[in-house]
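pipeline/complex-builder :: batch 7 item 3
reading input block
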Amino acid sequence: MRYFPIFLDLEDQAVLIVGGGETALQKLRLLAKTNAHICVVAPLFDPEIAAIAKKNSRVELIEREYSSQDMDNKRLAYAASDDETLDRLVAQNARSAGVLLNKVDDPSHCDFITPSIVDRDPICVAIGTEGTAPLLAREIKAQVDKLLPANFGALGAMAARIRPLILERLVDGRDRLRLWERLLAGPFRRAVLNGDEAHAQDVFETELELSQTASVELSHKQGVKQDQKEIATTKGHVALIGAGPGDPDLLTLKAMHRLQGADVLVIDRLVSASILDYARRDAKRIYVGKQAGGPSVSQDQINQILVREALTGARVVRVKGGDPNVFGRCQEELAACQLMGIEVEVVPGISAAQAASASIQLPLTFRGTHRSITLLTAATKDQVISSDVMAFMKAGRPFAIYMGVKLADEIVNVLSSSGVDMSEQILIVENASLREERVFSTALSELSVCVKTFSIDGPAILFVGLSYDEMGLQADPRLKAHELSNVVSLSRQVV
Ligand code: SAH
């Protein structure tokens, strides 16, 4: 991000526009909405510029050639004369005077860029493309414009009026947040948008009263150390959400809403930072993922963290990779919450096998042939290979293996000594849905060689018993790049 978006207070600040034609007019139209003092300097003015100045006492027209003194005491300056030599001079003067400059249509000489704006004063949506594609900004502006009712700003204005009272009456930040959420989503919002201020005020007063009562009750209960379960049912909540395989576009809307509403996030290792961007910046973040070499947090400790945080009345969101109910230790976390009477919900996510199958365009079921798909973990809880792998291999039905690549050596060892067909083709999808995604195909006998040769150390899914040929589909072309035979023959050539 080269240009950092900020909202600048121009109340009673001086702004200079050099130019009197169409370019200057476009800037003036926008700036005239602020409370800045605007000086427009040019020997000749477009009649519309003159008309704006006539109606607006804060716009001053200086009808002469530009002089460097015009830059004195200005906050912002626009070089908008359509005369390249003059605009360059204005740019130079602005630099020496330390005034922020916008040279119209010349991003390389701009200290700031005026964004595309959707104006619902006091609410303002600013859209920027760093000068690369103004058309895109216009497209977004049109969409946002449709999305926000014309009088949306009334909500902002009303919020400004009631904010001091809310601050005064509700001490706990979380209580305030909940009240705001209720006000801005329910009858209060409807009344404001319908222009019925009196009704909006009534609703607000009732809601504020309710929030205060709930808050007092809770602190009373905490004060006398009543049964913790009772407190929890009054307020705390845990959502075990699936963050999907990594691509933020594969997050469900529900998971996104839970992230946005979280007070506390309890985060797994496989959850990417771009997904956490949906959460409030001030939400408390607790990382419990086991990083190689890093401190590991036991499942018991994670359960305790969820319960402890929920009992403070927080909305706790436990963020897990993929789907929480697929190899996600959800059973323990659900049980811990249920035991303490904490309200808990599970929000599904896209599991790695689904994302991998979509990426490589290889369906998990095939009418008439594959009536089931099994999701297997290669590892038992003691990190040795699960006997299920062998059983399913022998049964000849398709399955997906999670947590398998680290155990590749062991899988090959165990299976080769148990009469399994070692020529069976295995497909591997590493980092499914992420930019680093890679795909491989190997005979079972070469599985560990393949894992080592290509250093497959990201999260990966192995598919067994699924074949493009059988389904009459074209194989993913990326598989060719990672054929073991290519690498082996290449290294032979080198020798
Ligand atoms: N709940 C998760 C699984 C957690 S177990 C889900 O539903 O996907 C962790 C294993 O999931 C990893 O060892 C790997 O086998 C698999 N996995 C997770 N993310 C993956 C990804 N982006 N690509 C491929 N496999 C992935």
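note: The longest strand covers residues 237-242.
queue -> next item
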